[in-house]
């Protein structure tokens, strides 16, 4: 299934994308939660009820009539991975890590496809990173690699937008990775039962129609299941946690001269078997200043 969070006529809720339509689960299966994290927390029975609603025809809306939101509106955790493709490591000139390089993107960075993300006031060194995203579906801890598939709800497309000078200021990278709007994701979560092998998916990124990244998730150094095992060794993973798995070569900082994103640029990222997201770049608006 392609699980979506969408807004229609001022109401935000969850559904299942089927072709050019969305099965509105609030109408087709009103007993189900209307929010994605609560839906995952409801367990396998909720997934089965959603499947039954789709198979039964369900109440449907035209996909063109709704606004897709980030599938997880406010992820409990966004746990991103750096330096996880050999070709990206080569273009950075850094050493290959012996363990996964983990950093946080703050939950307020979550952002939908189709809505521009911000060129911040604080920097012009704005970059893109096309990535496969893992979405956790079950609360878990100490998950061995061979059981990692059991706790993954599905997969999504992510742009790990990066402010490179802020990223480079300190080793944790968190500030440069966490600006508001800097984690576009979507357009939906494809449930893991529909992704036979998450480590055999073609990934492409275009900027203004120019192909910049072209790789395959088979080139991940630490794969999706490695990452679940590694992260869950330290702390509990929760339904709705999102794990961007790292980016291949072709990011803006890797070019000479560097190809920073500027206002008006359009970034499109596609992953085989999942879908694509597209976002323009806009100058950070004045109304982002808030006190109280």
Short account of what is shown:
By secondary structure, this protein is an alpha+beta fold.
How would the blueprint of this fold be written?
Blueprint (H helix, E strand, L loop, with lengths): L1 E7 L2 E8 L2 E4 H4 L7 H6 L2 H12 L4 E3 L4 E2 L9 E5 L3 H7 L8 E5 L4 E3 L4 E3 L6 E2 L2 E7 L15 E8 L2 E2 H5 L5 H4 L5 E9 L10 E6 L2 E7 L7 H11 L7 E3 L21 E6 L3 E9 L9
Query: Kindly state the mean pLDDT as a whole number?
Result: 97
N-to-C CA distance: 40 Å
CATH superfamily (homologous) name of the largest domain: Fumarylacetoacetase-like, C-terminal domain
Which structural class matches the secondary elements? alpha+beta
Number of strands: 19
Overall CATH architecture of the largest domain: Alpha-Beta Complex
The succession of helices and strands, N to C, reads EEEHHHEEEHEEEEEEEHHEEEHEEE
CATH class of the largest domain: Alpha Beta
Question: How many domains, in number, for the residues?
Answer: 2
How much strand? 25-35%
> How many DSSP H or I helices?
7
- Categorize the overall geometry: globular
Please give the radius of gyration in angstroms: 18 Å
């Amino acid at each position: 299934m392609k699980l979506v969070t969408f807004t229609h006529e001022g109401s935000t809720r969850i559904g299942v994308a089927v072709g050019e339509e969305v099965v509105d689960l609030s109408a087709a299966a009103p007993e189900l939660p209307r929010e994605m994290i609560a839906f995952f927390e409801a367990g396998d029975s909720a997934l089965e009820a959603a499947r039954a609603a789709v198979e039964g025809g369900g109440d449907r809306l035209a996909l063109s009539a709704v606004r897709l939101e980030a599938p997880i509106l406010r992820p409990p955790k966004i746990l991103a991975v750096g330096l996880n493709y050999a070709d990206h490591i080569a273009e950075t000139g850094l050493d290959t890590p012996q363990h996964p390089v983990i950093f946080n993107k703050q939950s307020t960075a979550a952002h939908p496809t189709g809505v521009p993300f911000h060129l911040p006031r604080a920097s012009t060194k704005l970059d893109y990173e096309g990535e496969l995203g893992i979405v956790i579906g079950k609360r878990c801890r100490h998950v061995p690699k061979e059981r990692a598939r059991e706790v993954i709800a599905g997969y999504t497309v992510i742009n790990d937008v990066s402010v490179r000078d802020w990223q480079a200021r300190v080793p944790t990278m968190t500030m440069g990775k966490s600006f508001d709007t800097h984690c576009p994701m979507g357009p939906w979560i494809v449930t893991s039962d529909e992704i036979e092998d998450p480590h055999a998916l073609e990934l492409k990124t275009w900027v203004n129609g120019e192909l910049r990244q072209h790789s395959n998730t088979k080139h991940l150094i630490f794969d999706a299941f490695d990452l679940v095992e590694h992260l869950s060794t330290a702390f509990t993973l929760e339904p709705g946690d999102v794990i961007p798995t790292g980016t291949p070569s072709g990011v803006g900082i890797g070019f000479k001269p560097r190809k920073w994103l500027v206002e008006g640029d359009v970034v499109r990222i596609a992953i085989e078997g999942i879908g694509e997201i597209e976002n323009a770049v806009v100058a950070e608006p004045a109304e982002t200043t808030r006190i109280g």
